[in-house]
Design brief:
The structure holds two protein chains of two kinds. Chain A has eight helices and eight strands; from the N terminus they run ααββααβββββααααβ. By secondary structure, chain A is an alpha/beta fold. Chain B folds into two domains: 147 residues, Beta-Lactamase, CATH 3.30.450.20; 74 residues, Winged helix-like DNA-binding domain superfamily/Winged helix DNA-binding domain (Arc Repressor Mutant, subunit A, Orthogonal Bundle). Helix content of chain B is 40%, strand content 18%. The relative contact order of chain B is 0.14. The chains are: A alpha/beta, B alpha/beta.
Amino acid sequence: MTEQSHKSNNPSLVDTNLRAAVWESLTLDPTIGVAIVTDEARTLWCNKRQAEIFGGDNATAELFNGRLWSTYFPQDWIEERLKLLAEVKATGKAIVLRTIWQGKQQFSQIRLIPDREDNEFQRFLVVTRRQPAGAHEVANQDVRMSEVAMLGELSSLTERELEVLALIGQGLTSKEIAALLHRSEKTIENHRYSLSKKLEGASAVALSAMAAQAGLTMDDSKRKRV
Amino acid sequence: MPGNSHQPHDKNIVGREVREVAWDALASDPTVGLSIVDEDARTLFCNARAAEYYIGPGATPEQCFGFGWASNLPAKALELRKEILAKVKAQNGPMVVRTILAGKQIYAVIYPIPSHNGEKMQFVHILRSIPGGATEYFKSMPVIETEEIDLGPLNVLSPRELEVLALVGQNLSSKEIGAILHRSEKTVENHRYSISKKLEGASAVELAAIARQAGLTLKDATRRKFKRRGPSGS
């Protein structure tokens, strides 16, 4: 690992000042959610951004700290995450998970925190960022797709409308979308009209912006909605 | 310890081992650039993402070690970076820098690392791309915008075309753009056509997406453009 080789070359970099500064910059960052969670499905601690990502713009960390996930999260969501935690614990390897939450695409890195074996629970560090579509940053990464999605402002859409929206987000015309979905251009135009109506009269450009924020793909239309 | 101020019971939860893991998490995060830079704007550590931001696509962390920004930034831009580092040191608190690299809007937050007696100060940089319209994230911190930007594929556009593209990114019609720029709708349409031609026939929706990724503003249109040399040139 790069950071390992670097540590040995630059001993000053592993001192406590550096670790403290990196921890502070990570947890105070307004775009990065940080949480310490356990395999009892509990959040021990999270920063403000993490609370906002999961609880909305006015949520505070106190809402989540020390609480069981079942207080706030749907069962399907919890079970999927517990499985991933078990895998990270078994392999010791970090996992990057992609989820749509509140209609926005986000990536979470889940890492094992070394704990004593006789601990009653295992701790994990979770680092989460919202990242819209076109995220070349994750292009070559091994990313897991969450099967559970919270579509937020897009939850009023049907499966078919989500598919059309995903393709609008890729910059396709109605004709191209029709060819892909084996429907007539007229049908697609109807879907677009209905989409736009459900989303407060959004224009084609605004629709594509929403699709981009959600990082919407065709597969997402079939995920379990929570 | 600064990290302990968040929660009274932090001490039990955020121990040394958590900070180690936090370092590993940031160092390997595909979406977040992490670097350690000293007062002379020399890079002491980069993760893969930061290497690409600093040097160019395809750059590796190894190329970043000891990398002097002087070799890849215009003199004015380097001067500004050093001024910012000096300010972060003086106020002993973080600052935010907004720039455009390779056509993507980048926000860097710079934190001071308390130094040992007599040693040069080091700084943590956390960089990430944020599309336009997401700037409310940094409303509680002062943001410094760099006057030198690397527009990447958008470098081929004229200042006027960049203005039009910035407004296309805000979802405005040609008529509305014409009114803002004091040009006729027809002239704006011509600009849009020429932009699309220069950018490989991008559609209106694609142009808006390109503008969003760059976080393009009217101000950016007249900023100084520069090109990074990339990994092969350094």
